[in-house]
Amino acid sequence: MNGAQALVVVPQSNGSPKAYTSNIANSNTQLTESNISYPHSKLNATHVNGDVTIYASLNLPIGTTSLVHLWQDGPMSGNSPQMHDLNSANQQSKESLDLTSGVTQQGSGGGSLSRRRNTHGILNAVSWGVLMPLGAVIARYLKVFKSADPAWFYLHVTCQTAAYIVGVAGWGTGLKLGSDSAGITYSTHRALGITLFCLGTLQVFALLLRPNKDHKTRIYWNFYHWGIGYATIIISIINIFKGFDALEVSTGDRYNNWKHAYTGIIAALGGIAVLLEAYTWIIVIKRKKSEDKFSQGMNGGTNGVNGYGSRPQQV
């Protein structure tokens, strides 16, 4: 409601409500008494059987043909109004009023905000929440298969790079949503989003500084890359669920199906990772045994050449 020109009614102990105006842009959404942009007169209110009615005459600028009408109610702390709820009903408590025809349109402007919210959620869920974990699965398990080298590396880089690019787009839409929703702040979700952007950027720079396999610093780079990568994946999954919680607060239960679908995707990826973990360990153990037998065979052949355990030569 930042920027709204508000007509405010506050209940009084004597039963007669107090009506006043508040320019929310100037009062930082605290509904303190202040002048509004429109000249007005005859401002008063009634409070009967729990229903509040506000009366006022407003002088609008010449040529005004429409306006956006908003309404809210909220709790009181003493004589001071407090922040209203952010559920679906509160978010949609607005309409566009055509002053020439008298026609109203419910929820004007909400469609654009809803589309941007959906875009933000989809971009981040696909990038940080699906592509990033998928890239980690590719790197960890495909490289066990010798026939997949170096294809697994290029798949991993492609997956993570795409995740970062799409994730930055989702992060940008989140910043725009935040700036367009003054007074509505999801501090944890925002802080985790900024952290993800920083960690993802570090991973991009790490790729540019990747040393050769035989370089002495490669082991330290590996620890850094693994640590930052897995931290990014864990935080991203947590933050996506934080985003779903924020949607439930602001829009009700409309996005529960999305939350269930993403939960299913993450569960499926986790199950695949567990199966591949067991399968790759079997392959590694078998390969190790095969290499040990081959090594023992080579040692036996060498000893035979040196005269140990070999048949005597006839002269």
UniProtKB/TrEMBL annotation:
Domain called Cytochrome b561: residue spans: 80-285
Keyword GTP-binding: no
Membrane topology note: Multi-pass membrane protein
Intracellular or extracellular location(s): Membrane
Main location: membrane
Co-factor(s): heme b
Residues spanning the membrane: 121-139, 151-171, 191-209, 221-241, 261-284
Keyword Isomerase annotated: no
Function recorded in the entry: May act as a catecholamine-responsive trans-membrane electron transporter.
Designated name of the protein: Cytochrome b561 domain-containing protein
